[in-house]
Amino acid sequence: MTTDEERIALFLDYENLAIGTRDNLDGLAFEFKPLAEALAERGRVVVRRAYADWSFFSDDRRMLTRHHVELIEIPQRMGARKNAADIKMAVDAMELCFERDYLTTFVIGTGDSDFTPLVHKLRELNKRVIGVGVKASTSPLLPAACDEFLFYEALEGVELPRPKRRARARREPAEAAPGAPADRPPEPAPSVKVADVDELTAVVTQTLAGMGRGTGDVVLASSLKRALLRKDSTFSEADFGFRTFGELLRFLEGRKAIELNQGSARGDPEVGLPERGVEEEAFALLRSVVAELEAKGTLPMMSGLKQRLRKLQPAFSEKRLGYNGFLQFCKAASTRGMVTLDWSDDADDYVLHAPTSDS
User: Does the CA dihedral 100-101-105-106 come out positive or negative?
Assistant: First the structure.
């Protein structure tokens, strides 16, 4: 039977995950269900293995068994090396990689950078690798090596404990001032910092522009998402408050940062940069600023020019238009005849000029 769905092999360095969850998430116990549901959205999990000395995780054994996870016993007594579980897990993953060619994706659950060579080798053998770990206990080397990295505390269904309330100061008055609001428990801290939407717009449009320059083909939403994950394996639309990637794209379309059109497959639209209207407005703004500086007798040099544009239009960003930098934006404006751009040795900078109708 042929199928296009991903077939996933899951390997859990359970001690690392369980202790990382407990120590960094206020004593929270690791639960397998949120991870299982996240992986079910990505494909069919055909191998589930967890490695640990299970004498230390008796309650967890029952939880994992209910989810059909195979428990691999690695005793830490009798002089066994502490990294015995790591070695066994790496050997098993490589063995399955060669023996089960139908496996397309390997999920490595750990925050330990010692597994980075394993990740590199699996990818070298044309396997997709997804990492899973607790953010505070995950080495920065590991997410960068993976095709995608899931932080456990950001998974749907993981309920983080409420932060503990601080004890009242002894010098606090016994009676609250009249009209003071009733004492409320503090709001729980967000598990993931909400990223800046302008930064998101810049990342998406730059990636989209780069894909268009690289191939010239139509860019589908699914291809764009994969490209974003290749740039940053921890990328997730949920960090920006969106439930799906499609919802994120529709939001950016509403901001006129991108355009969406019906693709060949339902639910996978074509994504493109907006027509010249938005871009021409930005070029016109640049030209007007340059002309104003020239009218005042000021030499319009490129350095400092971007700040002048932002004073008039705070939301201006060349990256939102798909340009890698302000110089590339100015060169595009020059190509379209909106300004001229020349290097000045005396100024040690690019100098712009706004052509008049007689120029």
Answer: positive
Amino acid occupying residue 263: G
- β-bridge partners, 343: 350
Using alpha carbons only, how large is the chain's radius of gyration in Å?
27
Exposed, middle or buried, 195 (CB in 10 Å: 0-12/13-18/19+)?
A: middle
CATH architecture of 197-272: Orthogonal Bundle (1.10)
Q: Which CATH number fits domain 276-353: 3.30.420, 3.10.450, 3.30.160, 3.40.50?
A: 3.30.420
Strand, helix or coil at 128? strand
pLDDT, one tens digit per residue, over 295-334 is: 888 888 888 898 888 888 887 878 777 776 788 888 888 8
Task: Single out the residue of 278, 277, 259, 276 nearest to residue 221, CA to CA.
Answer: 259
Residue carrying structure tokens 């871009």? 279
Segment 97-156, tens digit of pLDDT: 999 999 999 999 999 999 999 999 999 999 999 999 999 999 999 999 999 999 999 888
Sketch the domain layout of the chain as residue ranges.
7-154, 197-272, 276-353
The pairing of beta strand 105-109 with beta strand 7-13: parallel
- Angle made by CA atoms 168, 169, 170, in degrees to the nearest 5: 110
